[in-house]
């Protein structure tokens, strides 16, 4: 099991990085160019694919922490 644990951690960490990077921000490109003004306080609910990506990120984060803890104990 100890020989597969670092490989699993690498795979989970890469998937976690990808899931974090593909999440969209609420302001999109408007915030980068100074836009947003009144709409900067606007929060929308996540639906569909955005919500699935959010849950995948949460699950991957928990899995990564669990694998790190298991590696620490073994």
Report on the architecture of this protein.
This protein has 74 residues and is mainly alpha-helical. It has two helices and no strands.
Strand-residue proportion: under 5%
Structural class: mainly alpha
Give the overall shape.
elongated
The helix content is 55-70%
Distance between the termini: 10 Å
Specify the biggest β-sheet.
none
Rounded mean pLDDT is 82
Annotation, overall tally of beta strands: 0
Evaluate the radius of gyration.
17 Å
In the predicted model, the low-confidence regions spanning at least 5 consecutive residues are none
- The SSE order reads HH
Number of contiguous helices: 2
Task: Give the SSE layout.
Elements: H1 5-21, H2 49-73
Observed structural traits:
74 residues, single chain, 2 helices, 57% helix, elongated, mainly alpha
Give the gist of this structure.
It contains 2 helices and no strands. It is mostly helical and 74 residues long. α1 runs antiparallel to α2.
């Amino acid at each position: 099991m100890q020989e597969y644990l670092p490989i699993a951690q690498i795979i989970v960490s890469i998937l976690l990085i990808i899931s974090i990077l593909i999440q969209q921000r609420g302001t999109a490109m408007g915030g980068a160019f100074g836009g947003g003004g009144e709409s900067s306080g606007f929060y929308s609910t996540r639906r569909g694919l955005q919500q699935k990506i959010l849950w995948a990120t949460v699950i991957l984060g928990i899995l990564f922490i669990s694998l790190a803890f298991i590696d620490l104990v073994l």
